[in-house]
């Protein structure tokens, strides 16, 4: 049974359960809705890096902070498609393209992104994009080009959002998610732990996601990657226990969604990652790099998959969501 009417109190009760019980309950629900041992591998590429006018306090790519990020205009179609081919050879089944834009503008750059989507899709990969705010027309154009999913994270609770980002509102964020949904795109939306938010903020974020109908098909749980030069550079990243707790709660609230152990995975030991998988995470980023920061080394992931007997989730296996 999938529920969309969770109350804040119910979410809080689940989130605060004794951790071992929570993990075991999440593992049981996980088995009901997913093939155990099957993990989705997604590869990220930053197709336009840095120079973003937004002020997200965690981000390496905002113009407001001196982060030393290598700024780059929109990549060529061929460079992106070659990178997608490589991702496929490495075992990825979803390719995610990120652009440091506040919003999409309907210009030649957008035409180029549409061409990237067409060509990456033609490789037999699921294609995801994260490009900032969208108009309904742009969302439809992306869908028609073959885009599988649109990533747009809520990051934190509505009430804490203003502490992290002042250049747009939570309502802007929710509106873009609706626009993408209305165009028939799958949604990828989650958050970041370690922004200085309280437990109540985490509960509220999970509540917002779990009361969307339908639930986002994929829910990335990121651990803050502290970036030098940003206001959050000295923030302590969340512990593995906090990650596991958030993952297990997300699994119980949104049983059918893919829960992604996203940024921050490289700081976890293999055994800690396994704990996240048992708690319901069934998707990861595969590849040496996230957008601007390093990810878990490929060789180590290969070893981990081998040891655990992990089967990669085939592309479009979750087409029932689309
Ligand atoms: N500009 C677009 C946007 O904000 O929607 C797309 C790219 S943006 C970099 C994508 C997401 O990456 C953000 O919403 C945030 O959740 C995540 N992210 C960015 N920097 C991060 C960091 N330092 N640590 C963890 N997650 C981060
Ligand atoms: C998501 O939830 N996390 C990814 C992806 N969606 C776009 C981004 C993580 C970025 C980590 C910091 C960086 O590499 O700049
Ligand atoms: Fe720009 Fe996205 Fe980074 Fe915010 S998270 S500064 S919108 S690239």
Describe the protein.
The protein is an alpha/beta fold and about 325 residues long. The chain has a single domain, classed as Aldolase class I (TIM Barrel). Helix content is about 40%, strand content about 15%. It is built from eleven helices and ten strands. Strands 1, 2, 3, 4, 5, 6, 7, 8, 9 and 10 form a ten-stranded parallel sheet that branches. α1 crosses α8 and α8 runs parallel beside α9. The radius of gyration is 18 Å and the shape is globular. The mean pLDDT is about 95. The site of 6-(5-methyl-2-OXO-imidazolidin-4-yl)-hexanoic acid has 17 residues, from β2 and β7.
Key words describing this protein structure:
single chain, 322 residues, alpha/beta, TIM Barrel, 10-stranded parallel beta sheet, 10 strands, 39% helix, 14% strand, binds S-adenosylmethionine, binds 6-(5-methyl-2-OXO-imidazolidin-4-yl)-hexanoic acid, binds iron/sulfur cluster
Question: What's the helix and strand layout?
Answer:
Blueprint: H1 8-15, H2 19-33, E1 38-48, H3 77-89, E2 94-99, H4 108-122, E3 126-130, H5 136-145, E4 149-151, H6 158-164, H7 170-182, E5 186-188, E6 191-193, H8 199-210, E7 218-223, H9 240-253, E8 258-261, H10 270-278, E9 283-285, H11 298-308, E10 311-312
Parallel strand pairs: 1-2, 1-9, 1-10, 2-3, 3-4, 4-5, 6-7, 7-8, 8-9
The structure holds S-adenosylmethionine, 6-(5-methyl-2-OXO-imidazolidin-4-yl)-hexanoic acid (DTB) and iron/sulfur cluster.
The site of S-adenosylmethionine (SAM) has 19 residues, from loops.
């Amino acid at each position: 049974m999938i529920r969309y009417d969770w109350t804040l109190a119910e979410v809080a009760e689940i989130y605060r359960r004794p951790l071992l019980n929570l993990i075991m309950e999440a593992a049981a629900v996980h088995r009901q809705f997913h093939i155990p041992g099957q993990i989705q591998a997604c590869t990220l590429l930053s197709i336009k890096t840095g120079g973003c006018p937004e002020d997200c306090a965690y981000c390496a790519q905002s113009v407001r902070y001196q982060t030393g990020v290598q700024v780059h205009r929109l990549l060529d179609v061929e460079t992106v498609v070659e990178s997608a081919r490589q991702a496929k050879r490495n075992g990825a089944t979803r390719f995610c393209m990120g652009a440091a834009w506040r919003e999409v503008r309907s210009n030649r750059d957008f035409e180029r992104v549409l061409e990237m989507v067409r060509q990456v899709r033609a490789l037999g990969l699921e294609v995801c994009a994260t490009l900032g705010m969208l108009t309904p027309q742009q969302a439809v154009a992306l869908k028609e080009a073959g885009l599988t999913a649109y990533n747009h994270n809520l990051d934190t609770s509505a009430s804490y959002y203003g502490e992290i980002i002042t250049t747009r509102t939570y309502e802007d964020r929710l509106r873009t998610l609706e626009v993408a949904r209305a165009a028939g795109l799958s949604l990828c939306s989650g958050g970041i732990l370690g922004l200085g938010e309280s437990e109540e903020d985490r509960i509220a974020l999970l509540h917002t996601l779990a009361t969307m109908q339908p639930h986002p098909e994929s829910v990335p749980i990121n651990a803050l990657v502290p970036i030098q030069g940003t206001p959050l550079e000295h923030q302590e990243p969340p512990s593995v226990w906090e990650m596991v707790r958030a993952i297990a709660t997300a699994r119980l609230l949104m049983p059918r969604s893919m829960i992604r152990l996203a940024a921050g995975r490289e700081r976890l030991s293999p055994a800690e990652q396994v704990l996240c998988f048992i708690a319901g995470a069934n998707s990861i980023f595969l590849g040496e790099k996230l957008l601007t920061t390093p990810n878990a080394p490929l060789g180590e992931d290969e070893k981990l998959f081998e040891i655990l007997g992990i089967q990669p989730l085939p592309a479009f296996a979750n087409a029932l969501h689309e």
